[in-house]
Design a protein that fits this description.
Elements lengths: L3 H25 L30 H6 L42 E11 L8 E14 L6 E15 L2 E19 L3 E13 L9 E2 L2 E10 L2 E9 L8 E12 L2 E7 L1 E12 L5 E19 L4 E18 L4 E16 L2 E3 L4 E9 L1
């Protein structure tokens, strides 16, 4: 496991890498032709209209938005909340020239989610999570190359026999999306500056600076290939984490994510219009994912690291104009918690997660 001194020595390296990458990407795309967004087709003219973002990898979606509109979540409107794979979180580019059913201002979206897992016995570990984030977009230097700013706050409450602890994570995520080859290759560079602790601990245990760098290749209108790396700024074996795989949408009703470290298959089961003229659709999906967290703890006088594996079934209702609502039921296993004095393996548990985005 990396030591505190080793972690401090790595931060300047990754900061320099991020800066060099920014300059490199800027120089490559400096003379690039601006992307053109054709007029959006009428909402009711498409026999399978979806929501404009139901299947971003589909042919109909690429007809109106030829750039990479949803980089890593092929269909989900809400974020996963896991710090172990920040790249998989949905990042929609709702910028000034995108179709009219998306926001055109600086404010892009608001995400809220909450998770509950019960304490089930002597080796059980109960969890309650609450996540809140908002995304704002700025042209850098144009809307085709946006800078996404995401202030975030989350609270995680753990409870077990004779012990309970509450941890908080707050800070700012910065993400730069840069087209490299028109309609084909897009680069994604991100860095977050986070306070992660119990509001009592101090020092380097509470400060985290995760960094990621990835590329997204549009192999064809229905297939994206992703390759990248994530520096999570943890102190366990997940300090540096690769990300690779593809997102495939064989048709407008199905999406498949074959990604490391996330697998997800989603099926649209219904589409309909509301009395107010809005469009709505219902989706069912199954997924495998990691859950994780890393916080400075005054109680343990060290970093508290947590991770697990999750299998889940989910339902999501999306509206073109209103909020997206989601419900997930899952099973978490291979749970692991670690501090500098030792580690423990809590028993498996079921969980329930509610999510919304607007």
């Amino acid at each position: 496991m990396p030591t505190t001194a080793a972690m401090k020595n790595r931060l300047p390296i990754f900061t320099s890498l991020a800066l060099v990458s920014c300059l490199f990407l800027a120089s490559i795309g400096a003379g690039q032709e601006s992307l053109h967004f054709p007029p959006e087709e009428p909402i009711w003219a498409n026999p399978h209209p979806g929501l404009g973002n139901v299947s971003p990898g589909s042919a109909s979606a690429f007809a109106s938005v030829p750039s990479v509109r949803t980089l890593y979540s092929s269909d989900s409107e809400t974020e996963t909340g896991s710090e172990l794979f920040p790249l998989v979180k949905s990042t929609e580019l709702y910028l000034s020239r995108l179709p009219g059913n998306k926001r055109t201002g600086v404010f892009q979206r608001l995400n809220v989610s909450t998770l509950w897992a019960p304490d089930n016995g002597s080796k059980g570990l109960g969890m309650t999570e609450f996540d809140l984030s908002a995304t704002f977009a700025l042209p850098m230097p144009t809307p085709d190359s946006p800078l996404l700013l995401t202030p975030k706050f989350s609270t995680t409450f753990f409870n077990a026999e004779g012990w309970n602890e509450t941890f908080h994570t707050t800070g700012l995520g910065m993400r730069w999306i840069r087209p490299i080859v028109k309609n084909k290759l897009t680069a994604d560079l991100g860095v977050s500056v986070l306070y992660s602790g119990d509001f009592k601990a101090k020092g380097s245990d509470t400060i985290r600076v995760p960094v990621h760098l990835a590329g997204v290749w549009n192999f064809n209108p229905r297939t994206k290939i992703i390759l990248g790396v994530v520096y999570t700024d943890r102190r366990d074996d997940y300090n540096i984490f690769p990300m690779a795989g593809l997102i495939w949408t064989p048709n407008d009703d199905v999406s498949v994510e074959l990604l490391v470290p996330r697998l997800r298959v989603a099926q649209r089961i219904r589409w309909f219009g509301s009395a107010g003229g809005d469009e709505q659709s219902d989706w069912l999906y199954t997924a495998f994912e990691f859950g994780s967290g890393s916080w400075g703890s005054d109680y343990f006088d060290s970093r508290f690291e947590y991770r697990d594996l999750r299998l889940l079934l989910g339902y999501e209702r999306r509206t073109r104009l209103g909020p997206t609502l989601g419900l997930e039921v899952g099973y978490m296993f291979d749970r692991h918690m670690e501090v500098k004095y030792g580690s423990a393996h809590p028993s498996d548990s079921v969980f329930l997660r509610l999510r919304t985005a607007f």
